[in-house]
Amino acid sequence: MITYPFRKLLPYVIRCHSSMANDAFPLEAIQEKEPEEELEEWQTTNDPAELKHYRTQAKRIHTKSLNQALLAVRMLEDVDTVNVYRVGLVRAYDIVERIHRRYVEVCMFDGEELDRETSCGIDISIKHSKALADMANYLDSGQARARSVAGSSRSSTSNRSSASSTRR
Question: What segment(s) does the record annotate as region Disordered (predicted)?
């Protein structure tokens, strides 16, 4: 006899199990309410000084992400590491672009001011595009190596064995 902790559920389990052969996804999908998107502070403020501050922070984060990504390429990091930096760079660019657009919209620049702000955005875009191209070239060139799980465990094993031999 089958010992099943929830005997009352056994007929239901058998029905579900037999229907699984006919249906790849036998369970009903649970419909969840999508969480309401919370607005960031820079999306709700109309103060040009605050927006400029947020944009400066976003530019700083983008520059740091860009430098880390390019360093990973120069150091011939593995594919996974470079891709992680690439994702971070793209996210940072998206944020700085959105804040920049909001800043220009709120400030209603015209003439030279608008040209200066547009130039600032173009400079960021050029640096970003160049970094992405450099990363793509690196990943496509075959220089990037896959992460070696076996190699890292062997080196740690050899480190442990050499450490135990020195203790004797």
Answer: 146-168
Report yes or no on 15 lying in a domain: no
Within-domain flag for 20? no
H/E stretch holding 125 reads: helix 112-141
Q: What is the mean pLDDT of residues 45-51?
A: 92
Residue 108: left (phi > 0), alpha (psi -120 to 50), or beta?
left
Residue 136 falls within a domain, yes or no? Answer: yes
H helix count then E strand count, the chain: 6, 0
Residue pair 138/72 in contact (Cβ under 8 Å)? The answer is: no
Domain that holds residue 106: 42-145
Domains in the chain, number: 1
Neighbouring C-beta atoms of residue 161, cutoff 10 Å: 10
Look at residue 51 in the predicted model and tell me its pLDDT: 92
